[in-house]
Amino acid sequence: MATKNYKNIELPPKYVPKKSEPYMCPQHLAYFYHLLNAQKAELLQDSRSALNAVRTADQADSAGVGDESDNATFEQEITMNLRMSERDNNLLKKINAALERIENGTFGYSVVSGDEIGLSRMLARPLATMTVDEQEEHEKRNP
């Protein structure tokens, strides 16, 4: 079970987890907790901006402003923003799942084997849920 005090740890401004520290110690968890929450906040802000852009384009399209070319551009903008919003929602789900793993003490450990994923991999890809070998095997079986 993860120690809950990671939420209250104030890390030095340029802190980066080190291999010399115990794996997924409270400082590591604090680092990833704050990193993931910052990414989550940015995604939510981007999502609000994308939805506002969709509303604006839809209102302009509904108002009958512009010619056929303008209307096609509005529709293209709406489609692009909706795709970006869907992508952001999927990423948000992964971030929430990672935060849940931090909370329950399984963050940084493989969902397949329970082995350590490794600090280098977690720093490169904080949403990783499998070791490199397990991920490669998974990708071979599910191209």
* CATH architecture annotation of the largest domain: Up-down Bundle
What amount of the residues lies in strands? under 5%
**CATH class division of the largest domain:** Mainly Alpha
For the report, how would you describe the main beta sheet? none
Poorly predicted ranges: none
What is the alpha-carbon Rg in Å?
A: 20 Å
Distance between the termini: 35 Å
What is the count of structural domains? 2
Task: Describe the fold and architecture.
- With 143 residues, this protein is mostly helical.
- It has four helices and no strands.
Record the SSE blueprint.
Layout (H helix, E strand, L loop, with lengths): L25 H37 L5 H37 L14 H6 L7 H10 L2
Helix pairs in contact: 1-2
What key attributes describe this structure?
143 residues, elongated, 2 domains, 63% helix
Summarize this structure briefly.
By secondary structure, the chain is mainly α.
